[in-house]
Amino acid sequence: MANDNATKLSKNLLRMKFMQRGLDAEVKKQLEEEEKRIISDEHWYLDLPELQAKENFIIEERSFVPCEDLVYGRMSFRSFNPEVEKLMVLMNTQKQGEEEEEKEEKDLTKMETDVTDEEMARRYESLVGSMKRKYATKRERSQMQDEDGKRMTETKVKKGFLKPQD
Amino acid sequence: MSDCLKEKVGEVLLPGDVFSLERKPEKVICGPGLRRNGDEILVCKSGIFRHKHPNMYWIDSQQKRYVPAKGESVIGIVTAKSGDVFKVDVGGSELASLSYLAFEGATKRNRPNVKVGDLVYAQFIIANKDMEPELVCMDSCGRANGMGVFGLGGLLMKVSLGLVRRLLVPQSALVKELEKVFPFEMVVGLNGRVWVKAQSTQHMLVLGNLLEGCENMTAQQRHAVFRRVADSTP
């Protein structure tokens, strides 16, 4: 009677989590295999040879504008419409500006330098001192400060006020 | 690779001509009239083969039918208002759509004042052979730059696409001669529509006739006509 009941349980019911405990190993395997089959059937794939990704050397351009460098389409002459004349100047110089920029970029093989080599050298000279101080131990630092202090006092002595002569 | 292309520059080519390029790492930009087919370049319009440094090639052809291309500025006629887009006739195979938000300063509350029958100067932001073209009346920064509704009291006419390009070429000889005739204003759309406005209707008609006449004239003939117009008008 109990056996008959077990066979009547549907597969979907057996697949549920709480039914897994009572199942024996064989039935479990069977269920798993079935599940796998279902999944693999559902996953389609294209039966095609793999496409090679080639770099495209031919670029298509549908418009005449970049080909012939066509200008802005609104125009006014002899100050018939000053607003449009302003726009014309603006739009047509924009295009020229872009072209000039491109040329300039090509010309600039050497970078412009804001800082000359000499300035750079001077800067690094002072940098050596400050970097040295940074990595010095405490004792060394205090010594250095003493030296500086001595120098300071020396200079102070030199700069002391002079008594005004009556 | 570009050698076989350079040989043909300046020659007349016909649809069906093929440039087969052996593979070399060199980029080629094929403009209007040329089509890519794998590693070949096919000619699909008849005309003169042109080249621009460094690697731009195209066919300089004469035609009257406009095919929308992305980035081109055109003159459209608003033919319908449907919901939040305007349908604009640009002379292509299909009406272009123009969103009411694609105007300078337009918001959902502040709709632009566009009526059916208005002329708009706009540029294509989507122009695909399989899809409805889409226009905008502002640039990428949101400024109008002269685009939008225009055309109060002017004259609109249709010319060939070749003539339009001759008008828009930098330092165009044709425009230089036209501006000597009288003061006027002109809007040139790449779809072959030209709108002119001058002080009087007579002047506009003269300009219109001159433009239409320029279509098939040599430079000498044109000089003669312009001289005659200049003499006859005070």
Features:
heterodimer, A: 166 residues, mainly alpha, 7 helices, 2 strands, 60% helix, flat, B: 234 residues, alpha+beta, OB fold (Dihydrolipoamide Acetyltransferase, E2P), Ribosomal Protein S8, Chain: A, domain 1, 3 domains, 5-stranded mixed barrel, 4-stranded mixed beta sheet, 5 helices, 21% helix
How many helices of chain B does DSSP assign? 5
Helix content of chain A: 55-70%
The biggest beta sheet of chain A reads: none
State the end-to-end distance of chain A. 136 Å
Q: Which outline of chain A best applies?
A: flat
Q: Which band does the percent of strand residues of chain B land in?
A: 25-35%
Query: Cα-atom Rg of chain B, whole angstroms?
Result: 20 Å
Nearest-integer average pLDDT of chain A: 76
Give a short account of the largest sheet of chain B.
5 strands, mixed, barrel
Assign the CATH superfamily of the largest domain in chain B: Nucleic acid-binding proteins
- Strand runs of chain A, count: 2
In short:
The complex is a heterodimer of chains A (166) and B (234). In chain A, 60% of the residues lie in helices and 4% in strands.
Describe this protein's structure:
The complex is a heterodimer of chains A (166) and B (234). With 166 residues, chain A is mostly helical. Helices cover 60% and strands 4% of the residues of chain A. Chain A is built from 7 helices and 2 strands. The longest helix of chain A has 26 residues, at 82-107. Chain A is flat and about 130 Å long. The model of chain A has no long low-confidence stretch (mean pLDDT 76). In chain B, a hairpin with a 2-residue loop joins strand 4 and strand 5. The longest helix of chain B has 14 residues, at 201-214. With 234 residues, chain B is of the alpha+beta class. The mean pLDDT of chain B is 89. Chain B is 21% helix and 32% strand. Chain B folds into 3 domains: 3-60, Beta Barrel (OB fold (Dihydrolipoamide Acetyltransferase, E2P)); 73-150, OB fold (Dihydrolipoamide Acetyltransferase, E2P) (Beta Barrel), CATH 2.40.50; 155-232, 2-Layer Sandwich (Ribosomal Protein S8, Chain: A, domain 1), CATH 3.30.1370.10. Chain B is flat. The interface between A and B is large, with 31 and 50 residues. Strand 1 of chain A pairs parallel with strand 3 of chain B, so a sheet runs across the interface. Chain A: This is M-phase phosphoprotein 6. Chain A: Residues 93-121, 133-166 are annotated as: Disordered. Chain A: It comes from Synaphobranchus kaupii (Kaup's arrowtooth eel).
